[in-house]
TrEMBL record:
GO terms for biological process: glutathione metabolic process. It comes from the Eukaryota. This is glutathione transferase. Keywords: Coiled coil, Transferase. InterPro entries: Glutathione-S-Trfase_C-like, Glutathione-S-Trfase_C_sf, Glutathione_S-Trfase, Glutathione_S-Trfase_N, GST_C, GST_C_Tau, Omega/Tau-like, Thioredoxin-like_sf. Its EC number is 2.5.1.18. It is an enzyme of class 2 (transferase). It catalyses: RX + glutathione = an S-substituted glutathione + a halide anion + H(+). Residues 93-222 form the GST C-terminal domain. GO terms for molecular function: glutathione transferase activity. SUPFAM superfamilies: GST C-terminal domain-like (SSF47616), Thioredoxin-like (SSF52833). It comes from Vitis rotundifolia (Muscadine grape). Pfam families: GST_C, GST_N.
Length: 236
């Protein structure tokens, strides 16, 4: 018979402290109450563990569960939800689950990736993506207005945080920083009152609050990211 020690699960997360993709995986792990070992990666000198665990994209986050690598933050969150049944992240009802996946994908494609592009571009290219971002925020505001109210504070519904909240949560801590460094503005409390209310509630969640990062420290990192990309683009 296997000993208790042998049966113990090994959960390791390869991360980067200022990555929104990593942070949302940490939120999912904490939400489930899963103990894990966090390993900070140096992306200028990627570890062989990162390169062998995520050979296609070579990016963090990577979750290693008993040595098995799982990559891509949304895939990791779904894996966590399927493996550890306590505190469900995705809705149980298949139609509700499909809708949550739809909005998570919308956020990823139209907001997260667009925000990354806006950070590392300038001029006409940046103006175009900022315009698209504002349109996407309007769509999301419509969904927030339809779904959220004084009783339903989160997209996860009356029971609290869910998949869409965990996927979208990064905007509370990162958008202001990216806007400042990139020199543009997307979030506007007048135009997206429901999203702003959701943000105000999200940052007060006891699990989330202690994980929020100081803005000044992040600004320095994102300035370096922007400069590095603009420098590379200028050389092309
Ligand atoms: N779609 C991926 C994005 C992950 C990602 O872009 N990670 C960045 C850090 S924020 C990274 O590892 N970059 C390394 C590289 O591009 O070489 C996810 O959701 O996990």
């Amino acid at each position: 018979m296997a000993s208790a020690a042998m049966q113990e699960e090994q959960v390791k997360l390869l991360g980067l402290w200022f990555s929104p993709f990593v942070r949302r995986v940490e939120w999912a792990l904490k939400f489930k109450g899963i103990e894990y070992e966090y390993v900070e990666e140096d992306l200028t000198n990627k570890s062989s563990l990162l390169l062998t665990s995520n050979p296609v994209h070579k990016k963090v986050p990577v979750l290693l569960h008993n040595g098995n690598p799982i990559v891509e933050s949304l895939v990791i969150i779904e894996y966590i939800d399927e493996n550890w049944k306590q505190n469900p992240i995705l809705p149980q009802d298949p139609h509700e689950r499909a809708k949550a996946r739809f909005w998570a994908n919308f956020i990823e494609q139209k907001i997260t990736e667009a925000m990354r592009t806006a950070l590392v571009t300038q001029g006409e290219q940046q103006e175009k993506v900022v315009k698209e971002l504002k349109e996407a925020m309007e769509v999301l505001e419509g969904e927030a207005a339809a779904k959220l109210n004084d009783k339903t504070l989160f997209f996860g519904g009356k029971n609290g945080l869910g998949y869409v909240d965990i996927v979208l949560g990064w905007i509370c801590n990162w958008v202001e920083v990216i806007e400042e460094v990139g020199g543009f503005k997307v979030l506007d409390p007048q135009k997206q009152p429901h999203i702003h209310k959701w943000m105000a509630n999200f940052v007060e969640v006891p699990l989330i609050k202690p994980t929020l990062l100081p803005k000044e420290k992040m600004v320095v990192c994102f300035q370096m990211v922007r400069q590095a990309h603009l420098g590379l683009a200028a050389k092309k």
